[in-house]
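User: I'm putting together a teaching handout on how sequence relates to shape, and I'd like one worked example. Could you take Cysteine desulfuration protein SufE from Paractinoplanes atraurantiacus, show the sequence you're using, and then write out its predicted structure as C-alpha cells right after it?

Assistant: Happy to. First the sequence, then the C-alpha cells directly below it.
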Amino acid sequence: MPVKLAEIVDEFASAPRDVVLEMLLEFADSMPPLPADLAGHDGMEQVPECQTQFFLKATVQPDDTVVTWFDCPPEAPTTRAFAGILAEGLAGATTAEILAVPDDLYARMGLAQAISPLRIRGGSAILARLKRQITAQVAAR
C-alpha cells in the first residue's frame, strides 16, 4: 500500500468516531476538480454500486505511476470523501502499490462504526473498479 494511503488509514483507525466524521468531510472538500477534457465524463467509468452518480478514471503512465480522476456530486459527502482519500493517498503511486491496497481498506480504517454498510460497499466498489482499470492497462502493455 502506498505510504501516504497507509498514513491516512492509520489516522482514521485511531481517531474517535466524532473526529472521523469531520475527517471525512475534509476529504470530501479536498476533492480536486476534473480537468476540462473529462468534464462530460468522457472516458470515465461509472460505479453503479454507489448510491449516487460516481465516475472514475485511472491512467497508467509510462513510468508505471497512476493518475486517478474521480467525480461525485457535492451532495454525496461520504462518497466524495472516499474519492478524496484515494486521490490523496494514491497520488504518485505505482501500479503495484495500488494493486496491493487491501480490498477491505475502509474496514481497516474503522469506518464501519461511523457510516452505513451500504456506503462501505460503494467505497469498496470504487477501489475494485480502479484496480480493474489498472490491471487491464498493465495487461495491454
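A couple of points you could highlight for students: The mean pLDDT is 93. DSSP finds six helices and three strands in the chain.
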